[in-house]
Amino acid sequence: MKEDTSRHTVLSATDLAIGYKKNKVARHINFALNGGELTAIVGINGIGKSTLLRTMAHMQPPLSGSIEVDRKPLDTYTPQKLSSKISMVLTEPLASKNLSVAELVALGRQPYTNWIGTLTEDDRQKTEEALAALGLASIRKKKCYELSDGQLQRAMIARALAQDTAIILLDEPTTHLDLYHKVQILKLLKSIAHETQKTVVFTTHEIEMAIQLCDKMLLLNGTDNPFGQPCQLIEQGAFEAIFPDDTVTFDGETGTFRIKK
Ligand SMILES: Nc1ncnc2c1ncn2[C@@H]1O[C@H](COP(=O)(O)OP(=O)(O)OP(=O)(O)O)[C@@H](O)[C@H]1O
């Protein structure tokens, strides 16, 4: 039986500072994410969203502070154990677009297969479920280079779903998509979080959409990085200071930004 992750903190950060040897990018980052929640990380260009996501995936070390997965420090996990806990969806072009959609999605099972990568019946079933969940069954044989940006994005998410981790991290999953496909992907992420009790976290520039669709938001702002439900952040006036107010202002009533003319 699967553990009910919705009742406890699955992923948390305490006074986290992130960045690079000569470049402290952000500090004072605090959050606690439960299972079954969709969370957006937002903030202006270069504020550190991708750096934070990479730090959460243990692809780079924190400068200070801590990250815990299931209340254990991230750095106590072996890479193998971590790949069964956290999956990461990057927007970078695939190394091999020669793979078919089904082959790409099956790669999600790698953490569980033996050294020659033989798929078991369970691996095949998880791959099929992921293909079906993302509406990819009919194009399973298509090569990845034949896909539209939206289809490729869905295939990358399906690979993460096949990996069947409690935590899914996605770096800008809606870039290059039109409004309809942006909403489609975000709604899909929300239903994955709510229906499978996974903790889903993504970076985005779609602040208004995130306000409407996410359970929680982390706003990287270079100072105190407010975290909470979108309505709480609106009440705190957290969105008002994101952009210089001679350019764009935030309307808390509608949860939208207005261009100053
Ligand atoms: N490998 C690296 N080495 C040193 N500095 C880096 C490296 N990668 C990114 N940075 C710097 O870290 C800062 C944060 O970059 P990051 O990509 O995390 O921001 P972001 O919020 O995701 O930006 P965007 O919205 O433009 O994608 C930037 O100043 C960037 O130049």
TrEMBL record:
It is found in: Cell membrane. CDD domains: ABC_Iron-Siderophores_B12_Hemin. It holds the Pfam family ABC_tran. SMART domains: AAA. The keyword Nucleus does not apply. Its main location: membrane. One of its GO terms (molecular function) is ATP binding. The keyword Ion transport applies. Keywords: ATP-binding, Cell membrane, Ion transport, Iron, Iron transport, Membrane, Nucleotide-binding, Transport. It is a peripheral membrane protein. One of its GO terms (cellular component) is plasma membrane. GO terms for biological process: iron ion transport. InterPro entries: AAA+_ATPase, ABC_transporter-like_ATP-bd, P-loop_NTPase, Siderophore_ABC-ATPase. Residues 11-246 form the ABC transporter domain. SUPFAM superfamilies: P-loop containing nucleoside triphosphate hydrolases. This is Iron complex transport system ATP-binding protein. The lineage of its organism: Bacteria, Pseudomonadati, Bacteroidota, Flavobacteriia, Flavobacteriales.
